[in-house]
From TrEMBL:
Organism encoding this protein: Actinacidiphila polyblastidii
Catalytic reaction equation(s): beta-D-fructose 1-phosphate + H2O = D-fructose + phosphate; beta-D-fructose 6-phosphate = dihydroxyacetone + D-glyceraldehyde 3-phosphate
Lineage: Bacteria, Bacillati, Actinomycetota, Actinomycetes, Kitasatosporales
Taxonomy, superkingdom: Bacteria
Span of domain Damage-control phosphatase ARMT1-like metal-binding: 15-385
Descriptive protein name: Damage-control phosphatase ARMT1 family protein
Pfam families, alphabetized: ARMT1-like_dom
Coiled coil (residue ranges): none
Length: 412
């Protein structure tokens, strides 16, 4: 199990550097009253790594009567009272964000109930020049051969996963919401670029063959719906919506379901409100983007594109532990696309797996065929060819955590 105990590890840097920077940014982004500011300061003190090289505080439980207190009480029973840096990294990250929402009063009652503490960052990103450039690049796609159109929209969704506000939080307190398309932590790539650059596992052809030229391949259930489990809002969610439009308009999917978080989770995780914001941004754009936005709007109002949420998407648990109702929902899918690093960690387990461990063996529990689109931003890596792994290790660098490499992994 991956933890943050090693001071030289990537997980340790997230807890010791990224989380304090995020608390400061959230505190500065709103005119929170003194009690909310004090709660944020208390969370910062509890989760800090001290100058003496030790954990400053111990994990405290949610206050009595808090929203979902019982559920988090069960999940946190083995960890409350321990150091934040010694418990499983996935649980520590998830619980940090749950505690952050508690500190700002998101679950109420009170005037701050329902206010997304990350909304200013998400909205700034949508207004940025990078989004305008990426939407304008869609005008190039119709001129491409069909196979290259498929590659372009899938590559956009894949590399859009680099557009992660949490990934771009800096210890200095800045958030890069307008990064260019080519740099580390940037967003999608232009339609003319080779989206396979940096992809260390590429099962895209298997995915397209499974869908077939006009509708999913035969499945035991006869399912024709495509499900997509979203990760981030803004510059990642827009390419996801464009991918869904492409699948619907080319007949690869008769209907589609977009799964989002029921409330804010990690910094830029997508909620229903974010879907609406992104859809409006696409619809208001000139050219082909605006036409795609209009089609998506019609697809949602007609029911061909549904948006759903589920409490489990904000749980610190692997997808192998998904509840029966979510399993039954995903079982209806011809394919379920899982976006992003956090979903990937939950798919295969947030562990130090040997990197050549087969992806299919770790996801055999999933109730339908699945495709993982993930830019590597954490230590987990599976399904790699031994020669590819050897080259990556020989070259050095933070290939597991720097957002410079990606995987497209399909399991029928």
């Amino acid at each position: 199990m991956i933890t943050s105990a090693d001071p030289d590890s990537f997980p340790h840097s997230v807890l010791a550097e990224r989380h304090p920077a995020l608390i400061r940014q959230v505190r500065d982004a709103f005119p929170y009253p003194p009690d909310r500011q004090q709660a944020l300061d208390a969370l910062a003190a509890e989760t800090a790594w001290s100058a003496a090289g030790t954990a400053a505080g111990r994990i405290a439980p949610l206050p009595a009567g808090a929203h979902d207190e019982a559920r988090w009480g069960r999940w946190g029973r083995p960890y409350v009272g321990q150091s934040w840096f010694e418990v499983p990294f996935l649980w520590a990250e998830s619980y940090f964000y749950r505690r952050l929402l508690e500190a700002v009063g998101h679950f109420g009652p009170g005037p701050w109930q329902g206010v997304d503490p990350f909304a200013p960052f998400k909205r700034a990103e949508l207004r940025g020049a990078a989004v305008a450039e990426e939407l304008a690049a869609l005008d190039e796609v119709p001129g491409l051969p069909r196979e290259e159109q498929d590659r372009a929209v899938l590559g956009g969704a894949l590399w859009g996963n680099r557009a992660d506000l949490g990934f771009r939080i800096s210890a200095g307190g800045g958030t890069d919401t307008g990064a260019g398309t080519g740099g580390e932590g940037g967003g999608g790539r232009g339609a003319g670029e080779d989206a396979r650059d940096g992809v260390i596992v590429d099962d895209a052809d298997r995915f397209w063959r499974h869908l077939g030229p006009a509708g999913p391949a035969s499945t035991p259930s006869g399912a024709t719906a495509l499900h997509l489990v979203a990760d981030n809002a803004g510059r990642e969610l827009i390419p996801d919506l464009i991918l869904l439009d492409h699948l619907l308009t080319t007949g690869r999917a008769a209907t589609a379901v977009l799964h989002v978080k029921p409330y804010p989770y990690f910094v830029s995780d997508a909620t229903t409100a974010d879907v609406v914001d992104c859809l409006r941004r696409i619809t208001e754009a000139p050219g082909r983007a605006g036409r795609i936005g209009a089609r998506l709007w019609d697809a949602m109002t007609s029911g061909r594109l549904a948006v759903r949420d589920h409490w489990f998407f904000c749980a610190p648990l692997p997808y192998a532990a998904m509840p029966d109702d979510l399993r039954a929902d995903l079982a209806q899918a011809a394919v379920t696309v899982f976006k992003g690093d956090l979903n990937y960690r939950r798919l295969v387990g947030d562990r130090h797996h040997p990197a050549t461990t087969p992806f299919a063996s770790l996801t055999s529990y999933a109730p339908s065929p699945l495709l993982a689109l993930r830019t590597l931003k954490s230590d987990v890596a599976v399904g790699l060819d031994p020669d590819v792994l050897a080259d990556l290790e020989r070259d050095g660098g933070a290939w597991r955590t720097g957002g410079t490499h990606a995987v497209v992994q399909f399991r029928a």
